[in-house]
Every structure is written in structure tokens, then in C-alpha cells.
């Protein structure tokens, strides 16, 4: 049933017919086109849909549309035309990253600001005041540090006047709700697509009849999504899809699809899949398993449901002999044990989404993706199209963290439905779909043995990892233990255990936080047994010169020097300090080009990369602007479109290391072309302008006077004469050579010289009665070379720390091991860090060490999160004397461990 309501929205009156089951957020977004209000959780948990109703902030996802009758509503679009002080403060403090949650934060913060200012004037609220006011809001990127600072600044009157400089070039469109994401795209005649998913963990589809769905009034297309095998291997696997005039109609039609399943035995989870006689997920000589890896997939043997081992060992037999002898001798310097981790879901706030449209045999797809150029290539291959007939657009991307790197089934569904319906079709996953089938960091089990020495480095190391990536393979966990603490004998073996659960996907620093969780705790335990400072031991074990300086700095921190002796405390509340180190391979993408040019007297830079909140737009604008003595706002940035020259994927910390050198090379070529075009003799250039025989001219004047001209450049190679640093694979022998070759061949990635580093020192408080752990402060030292955009890099590192805390303490997806159903249904069930969980965070950048890289810096997105959970685990041990072996460090586990 429906009824007509009358509402005032942003000062305009509307009469709208609404359904009884329709929410306010649906009306605002789909009927009125006010897409600044975001639908994320649908449960009133995240705050992204916050609007003012009669001046009061409310979650519009929980508010029935019928309840708006006679009310006055203000959305994010209703503030202006001048920026509110809160919006200015958000811009200045870089209190955002991907921007998807930003409108909800801003609306709530404006309500708090206006109330505070009317009652308190320009008195500055405390950190706790702001946290209490914004407690109903979540940010997956972890922009909380900037948000707290922004609200305090705005309330104190620091942004009552003119608009401030913006560290992030797209900040204004994000704080005003004008940034358009794929989920916001609306085209003429657009249909809504919904996917039918398997209710079985393993079954053969005997019959799929779409006729009843096609007969539903308003349905325009229905398509089969199964392959020729006609087998589903996990609950939630895509079976079919329907496109209709609205989502409600499509959902009704999906329920009419007739499917006959022949249910087959299933192995749910890693333990069941390893049992003798377990149902096999794949059979035959050629087993077609999807990859959970961002890197290359190395050959390995299958034994039932176990694929592996893939080895990255060095004198593996010698390692086994040394460790076996140490075990027989009862050597106290032998540290060994089993560590486990849980599935961590990416939980990007913009869901996976695609809007597909066919025009005369050409395809245009708006996609929430981390890889516009690569995805266009994949689509062309999948649908047998020339690449020039495929265009992928990703203007703004609301987070990804590794889950949006490839061609996924919602994209295929949208494209197939659009072709069948001959109309644009939008497919947007719901939050339960995101949590269940859109990807996760695979849980793992690590058996680690480490043999330390009383002087010098490690004597031996063995890591055997088993990863649970559902139906996918390609984990690399043990292999990553090769790159930080060398030993003469190392055995590193990775296994995939396939089972009837949805496929895992790469997640920020794939495999590395899992490896660090075990390795860094083992090193900490070795220090305890040696009676040695854990940082001093790391300085002895790790020869890397950059990390050596980070260890030295960490040793001088007050929080480290003032820590208590492990296990010395008593009482309910105990504090501890822990340290962990991490590193990440420096890589860049080879097949990428940046264009810099002048068009109509304005400078632009273009490449087919994308910005999911990591700051690629701003990095390009800053680098090009500085080279011409201009502000970043003076540079037009053209990204998020596969029609541009091929740009890098946003993943694996490759983007900055790829686009900055290419942009600098293109700038040098453009400057020469400008000099030539203006006919200047005896010209000498610098970053301020051109000196020539007849005088001088600034770059601003030169650009305004020059004709339209462009210069393009591929990513140049590094200057290896400028550094003695060895590549991380240099000492890895044949295995390293194979890995480097495979990365070049399968991913067009080059492994550069030098190794990044991070050292995290965390202080925590443990409530021993309730088992709760609260992180009080984190000091992070990061060595990734020269920082291209300091404010944004700091924001990235804040977010990395906060995601690491979530991995360590809260995040765990739950599934029913009987039938494979993912029980984690929404953000009410899946706990990510909120604003009240944010500790004091101090980030220190060490900006040298990469002088051989054009621009002097590399990526740090992965590096900032890898060691955080392990540092928290070591802090728990320091506080209590109990060492956590399983993530997350849940209250029940901690209480049981102390019993």
C-alpha cells in the first residue's frame, strides 16, 4: 500500500506517494535524487544516512518514509551555498578519506556545533565531548583523528571566516555531499538489478526456470549466471539475476524463480575440509579455483582439499634438523606454537556496485573499483569485445581495501541484464551480501618455530601456514616471513585449505598482518626468555638500516622506557606496552602512463587510475602543481576513467610509487615543450618559471600564454646508482627470481630496491575482570621515503592503525559450520572500531632511504597496518603475563587465559 505525504526538504515542498515499507533514505535518494545521504548499514548503526528532521539528527534508514509527513528535512545538500564552519574544518583537517561516511558525520557535527555554540560560545569542547556527540557514526577508513580535531576547531570558532586551503583536492565535494559514487549513479530509463543466490553450500542445479520472474509486471530482464558446470559451491553463490523498474519489484521477481537443486555433501570450514573422507571441493587434474591472492599463483600439488605446500624456503631441511635437535635438547631459546586468526571483512562503506549501459555494441560501466584500467581489460576479455569498446568509470570510490580489484559477479550481472533489457541496469550489493560473499581476509592457522641465539641473528625459522580462503586459493603468509629477520636456515610453507565457503580476497597487506601476528609475538617471546629488551633484540635480528633507525627511535619513547616488567602487575586494571615491526615490498606498475598538458590555458594531469580515499587525486595535483609553482587547486586532475592512458591499480601500495615518477617525467617533457612553443631562447627552467634571453616569465604566465600541448611519460626506472639498497628478493635465490618473474608477467609489477619499514609501539589497558582491552596510545614510525602529500599520508597511517586495532580486538565474521550460512548479518554484528575506540596516535615519518626512486618515496598504505595487531598482542602479554595466540583478542579468551 502507499500513501501521499507532504514534506519540506532543504526548503522545497514536495508531495510524494510512498510505500508503507519504504524508508526515508530511499525516498531522499531514489525519489528526490539527494544522494549525499548514504545507505550503508540499514540498521541505524553507522550514521551515514543522518539527516536533520525538524532540526534533530536522525538515522533515515530506520525512519519510515510515512513518518516524514508534515516534517522539515535538511540533508547534507541543504547547507550552503557557503560552507558551514564544520565543513571548513573537515576540509582543513583532512577529516575524511573515501568520503562515503562524511555527509552523515558532517550533518551530526553541524547539529552539535550549532547547539554547542548557542550554549557555550567559542569554548572548545573536549575530545570526550566530541566522541560522545558522534558515537553513533562509523568510518571504515579510520578518519576519526581528523574528525575529532575538526569538530573541536569548528566549535572553538577557528573556521568561522574564509574557506581554508584543502589538503585533499576533492574535499569540498565530499563534505557537501556532491561527490558521486557508483551507487549514486542514476541514468534515464535505469533499471534495478537483484541477484538470486544459492541457499546450499554445495549442490548441482538441475533446473533453472526464469519464466515466472520475467512475467512479473515491471520486470525487464532475467539472466542465468551459472557456468556450464551448473554447480554451486557456497551459500550465496550467484545463480541468476533480475532487472526491474525498481528494487522492490526485482526482489519480488527473484522469489518467483524456480530452481531445482541436487544437494551434495559439503565441507564447511578448514577443520572439516582437512578431515579424511571430507567431500572434495574440486576434483580432476585441472582444478579451477579462483585466486584469493593479489600476487601471482604459484604451482602446487593438491592432496584432497589441501593445495600446497608452496615453498619460499632456504635450506629448509637444515631448518628442520636444527629445530628438531633444539626440541630434543629442550633448548629454552626455541620458541614454537600455533597462532590463529579470524576472517576480517573489508566492510567498505560503498558496497560493490555497477551501472552498466550498452550503446551500439559498446559498453559503459560505472563501477566501484580499485582497478578501472585493469577491469576494462577483464570485461573486454570476458565479453569478447575490443578494448576500445569498453569504458569503465569510477569517479569516486567509497573504499575498497582489496575487495574491488577484479571483475566480480555483480558487474557481470549488471552487464548481462543491461544487454538483455536494452537499458541501463544498476546492481548494488546489500550489507549482508557485502559481509557474506564480497570478500574477506582469509583466516589462518600458523605453526611457527623460531630458534634464537644469545648473540647474532636467528639460527633457524620454520613457518607452516594453512589459510582458509573458502573456495579460493593463492594465500601467501609464511612466505612473507622471509623479508624481515634473516636466518641461515628457513622453512616457509604455505597451504590453502579449500572448503565450501565464499572466496577470500586480498585485504590491505595481504597475508602480512597474519604473518606478523605470529612472527612478532615469537620474537617478543624470545626476548623475554633471553631477558633482553624486545626492541634491542629486533635491532640484533634485523639488519635493515631504515628499520634500525626506527627501533632506535622507539627505544627513546617515554611510553617504552616507562613500561612495567612483564607480569609484574596485579589488580583489575593493568597496563602494558608492546612493540611489533613490519615491512612491505616496494613495488610499482610497469604498464602505466601519465599525461600532463595545457588545455585552454589550464594545466591538467590525467591517467586511468582511481582514488578510493587514498589520495591519488591530491598526490597528482600536488606533484604537478609544485613543479610549476602552482597550488594543487590550479591543476585539473582527470582520473577514474579507463579511457585515459593506462594507470595503475590501487592496491599493494603501488599507486604513489607508480604515478609520481611518471608524472615528474611528463612534467619535465611538458616544460620543454612550453619553452619551445613560446619560442624562448637560452631558456633555463626551475620550479618558479623560465629565465630566458629577454627576461623571465612565471610558469603561470607561460601556461596562460602557451597553446594547447601535452606530454606523456611511462613510469621510468629507478636510478640504481643513487642507492646501494638491495631488493627484498635479492637474497631469495631461485625462488626470488621466479617470484619476480611471475609478478612482472602476471601483474606487470616490478619489485624495486629497498625495503620499507614500520615499528608500532602500543600501550593498552586490560580490564582483567571483564576481559576488555582498550588501546590508549600508538606510536608509529614509518619509513617509506619522501612523503608526497603529508596530510593525506598521515590520514592513511591513522586509518591503518585503527584498522589494525579492529583486526586485533574486534573483527570476526561468524558462520554456521553445519550449513555454511554466514551469520554475521550487518554492522550490528560485525564490530569495527568506532570513534570511542581511537587512541592517541603519533606518526613519525622517516623520509630518506629511497633517493633512487624518482620523487624519493614509495607507498605506505599496507605498511601502516601490518604490525598493529601484533603490537597489541605483545602489550597484552606485557600487562598480564598471558600471551594471546588467537585473533581477535576477545574478552572470553582473555578471561579464560588468565584463569
What is the fold's blueprint, element by element?
Blueprint: E1 2-9, E2 12-19, H1 24-31, E3 50-53, E4 56-59, E5 72-74, H2 85-92, H3 102-120, H4 127-133, H5 144-155, H6 171-175, E6 191-197, E7 203-209, H7 211-214, E8 219-224, E9 231-232, E10 238-244, H8 247-254, E11 258-263, H9 269-274, E12 302-303, E13 306-311, H10 316-329, E14 334-341, E15 344-345, E16 353-359, E17 362-367, H11 372-382, E18 390-393, H12 409-421, E19 425-428, H13 431-437, E20 440-441, E21 444-451, E22 460-467, E23 490-497, H14 512-530, H15 534-541, H16 545-555, H17 558-561, E24 573-582, E25 585-589, E26 593-599, E27 602-606, H18 616-627, E28 635-638, H19 655-677, E29 684-685, E30 689-692, E31 695-698, H20 699-705, E32 709-714, H21 733-747, E33 749-755, E34 757-767, E35 772-783, H22 790-809, E36 840-846, H23 868-880, H24 891-898
Parallel strand pairs: 1-5, 6-19, 17-18, 22-23, 27-28, 35-36
Antiparallel strand pairs: 1-2, 3-4, 3-5, 6-10, 7-9, 7-11, 8-10, 12-13, 13-23, 14-21, 15-20, 16-17, 16-19, 21-22, 24-34, 25-33, 26-27, 26-32, 29-30, 30-31, 34-35
Helix pairs in contact: 2-3, 2-5, 3-5, 14-23, 15-16, 18-19, 22-23
Amino acid at each position: 500500500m502507499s500513501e501521499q505525504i507532504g514534506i519540506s526538504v532543504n526548503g522545497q515542498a514536495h508531495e510524494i506517494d510512498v510505500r508503507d515499507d519504504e524508508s526515508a533514505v530511499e525516498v531522499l535518494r531514489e525519489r528526490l535524487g539527494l544522494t549525499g545521504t548514504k545507505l550503508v548499514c540499514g540498521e541505524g548503526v553507522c550514521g551515514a544516512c543522518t539527516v536533520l528532521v525538524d532540526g534533530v539528527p536522525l538515522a533515515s534508514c530506520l525512519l519510515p518514509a510515512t513518518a516524514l509527513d508534515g516534517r522539515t528535512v535538511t540533508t547534507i545538500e541543504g547547507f550552503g551555498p557557503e560552507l558551514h564552519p564544520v565543513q571548513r574544518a573537515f576540509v582543513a583537517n583532512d577529516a575524511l578519506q573515501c568520503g562515503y561516511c562524511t555527509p552523515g558525520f558532517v550533518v551530526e557535527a553541524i547539529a552539535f556545533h550549532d547547539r554547542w555554540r548557542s550554549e557555550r560560545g567559542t569554548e572548545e569542547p573536549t575530545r570526550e565531548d566530541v566522541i560522545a556527540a558522534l558515537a553513533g557514526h562509523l568510518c571504515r577508513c579510520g578518519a576519526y583523528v581528523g574528525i575529532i580535531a575538526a569538530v573541536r576547531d569548528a566549535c572553538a570558532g577557528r573556521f568561522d571566516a574564509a574557506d581554508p586551503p584543502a589538503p585533499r583536492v576533492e574535499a569540498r565535494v565530499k563534505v557537501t555531499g556532491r561527490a558521486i559514487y557508483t551507487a549514486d549513479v542514476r541514468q534515464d530509463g535505469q533499471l534495478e538489478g537483484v541477484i538470486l543466490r544459492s541457499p546450499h553450500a554445495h549442490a548441482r542445479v538441475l533446473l533453472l526456470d526464469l519464466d515466472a520472474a520475467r512475467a512479473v509486471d515491471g520486470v525487464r530482464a532475467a539472466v542465468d549466471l551459472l557456468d556450464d558446470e551448473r554447480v554451486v559451491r557456497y551459500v550465496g553463490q550467484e545463480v541468476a539475476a533480475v532487472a526491474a523498474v525498481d528494487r522492490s519489484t526485482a526482489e519480488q521477481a527473484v522469489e518467483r524463480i524456480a530452481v531445482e537443486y541436487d544437494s551434495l555433501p559439503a565441507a564447511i570450514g578448514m577443520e572439516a575440509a582437512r578431515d579424511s573422507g571430507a567431500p572434495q571441493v574440486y576434483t580432476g587434474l585441472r582444478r579451477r579455483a579462483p585466486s584469493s591472492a593479489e600476487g601471482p599463483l604459484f604451482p602446487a600439488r593438491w592432496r584432497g582439499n589441501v593445495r600446497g605446500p608452496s615453498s619460499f624456503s632456504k635450506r629448509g631441511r637444515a631448518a628442520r634438523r636444527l629445530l628438531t635437535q633444539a626440541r630434543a635438547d629442550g633448548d629454552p631459546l626455541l620458541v614454537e606454537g600455533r597462532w590463529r586468526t579470524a576472517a576480517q571483512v573489508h566492510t567498505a562503506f560503498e558496497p560493490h556496485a555497477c551501472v552498466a549501459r550498452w550503446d551500439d555494441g559498446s559498453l559503459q560501466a560505472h563501477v566501484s573499483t580499485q582497478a578501472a584500467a585493469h577491469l576494462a581489460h577483464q570485461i573486454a576479455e570476458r565479453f569478447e569485445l575490443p578494448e576500445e569498446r569498453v569504458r569503465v568509470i569510477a569517479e569516486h570510490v567509497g573504499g575498497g581495501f582489496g575487495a574491488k580489484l577484479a571483475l566480480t559477479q555483480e558487474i557481470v550481472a549488471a552487464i548481462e541484464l543491461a544487454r538483455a533489457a536494452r537499458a541501463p541496469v544498476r546492481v548494488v550489493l546489500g550489507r549482508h551480501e557485502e559481509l557474506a560473499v564480497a570478500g574477506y581476509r582469509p583466516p589462518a592457522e600458523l605453526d611457527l618455530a623460531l630458534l634464537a641465539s644469545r648473540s647474532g641473528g636467528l639460527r633457524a625459522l620454520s613457518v607452516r601456514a594453512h589459510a582458509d580462503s573458502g573456495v579460493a586459493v593463492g594465500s601467501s603468509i609464511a612466505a612473507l616471513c622471509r623479508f624481515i629477520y634473516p636466518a641461515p636456515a628457513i622453512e616457509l610453507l604455505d597451504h590453502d585449505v579449500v572448503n565450501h565457503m565464499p572466496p577470500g580476497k586480498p585485504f590491505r597487506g595481504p597475508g602480512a598482518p597474519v604473518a606478523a601476528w605470529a612472527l612478532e609475538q615469537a620474537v617478543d617471546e624470545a626476548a623475554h626468555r633471553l631477558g633482553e629488551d624486545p626492541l634491542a633484540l629486533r635491532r640484533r635480528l634485523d639488519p635493515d638500516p631504515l628499520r634500525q633507525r626506527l627501533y632506535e627511535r622507539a627505544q627513546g619513547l617515554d611510553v617504552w622506557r616507562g613500561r612495567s616488567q612483564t607480569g609484574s602487575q596485579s589488580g583489575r586494571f593493568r597496563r602494558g606496552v608492546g612493540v611489533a615491526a613490519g615491512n612491505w615490498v616496494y613495488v610499482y606498475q610497469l604498464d602505466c602512463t601519465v599525461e600532463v598538458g595545457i588545455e585552454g590555458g589550464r594545466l591538467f594531469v590525467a591517467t586511468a587510475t582511481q582514488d578510493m580515499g587514498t589520495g591519488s587525486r591530491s598526490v597528482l595535483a600536488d606533484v604537478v602543481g609544485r613543479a610549476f609553482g602552482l597550488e594543487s587547486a590550479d591543476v585539473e586532475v582527470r582520473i577514474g576513467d579507463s579511457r585515459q592512458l593506462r594507470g595503475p591499480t590501487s592496491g599493494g601500495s603501488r599507486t604513489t610509487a607508480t604515478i609520481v615518477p611518471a608524472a615528474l617525467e611528463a612534467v619535465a617533457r611538458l616544460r620543454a615543450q612550453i619553452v619551445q612553443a613560446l619560442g624562448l631562447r637560452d631558456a633555463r627552467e626551475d620550479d618558479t618559471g623560465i629565465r630566458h634571453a629577454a627576461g623571465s616569465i612565471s610558469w603561470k604566465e607561460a601556461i596562460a600564454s602557451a597553446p594547447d600541448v601535452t606530454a606523456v611519460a611511462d613510469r621510468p626506472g629507478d636510478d640504481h646508482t643513487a642507492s646501494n639498497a638491495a631488493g627484498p628478493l635479492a637474497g631469495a635465490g631461485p625462488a626470488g627470481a621466479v617470484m619476480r618473474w611471475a609478478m612482472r608477467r602476471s601483474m606487470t609489477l616490478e619489485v624495486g630496491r629497498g625495503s620499507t619499514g614500520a615499528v608500532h609501539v602500543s600501550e593498552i589497558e586490560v580490564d582483567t575482570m571483564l576481559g576488555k582491552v582498550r588501546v590508549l596510545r600508538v606510536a608509529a614510525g614509518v619509513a617509506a621515503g619522501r612523503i608526497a602529500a603529508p596530510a593525506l599520508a598521515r590520514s592513511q597511517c591513522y586509518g591503518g592503525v585503527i584498522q589494525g586495532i579492529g583486526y586485533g580486538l574486534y573483527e570476526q565474521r561468524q558462520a554456521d559450520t553445519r550449513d555454511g550460512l554466514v551469520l554475521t548479518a550487518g554492522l550490528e554484528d560485525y564490530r569495527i572500531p568506532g570513534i570511542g575506540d581511537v587512541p592517541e596516535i603519533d606518526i613519525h615519518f622517516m623520509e630518506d632511504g629511497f633517493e633512487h626512486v624518482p620523487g624519493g618515496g614509495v607507498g605506505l598504505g599496507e605498511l601502516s597496518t601490518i604490525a598493529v595487531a601484533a603490537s597489541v598482542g605483545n602489550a597484552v602479554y606485557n600487562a598480564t603475563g598471558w600471551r594471546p595466540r588467537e585473533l581477535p583478542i576477545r574478552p572470553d579468551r582473555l578471561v579464560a587465559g588468565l584463569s
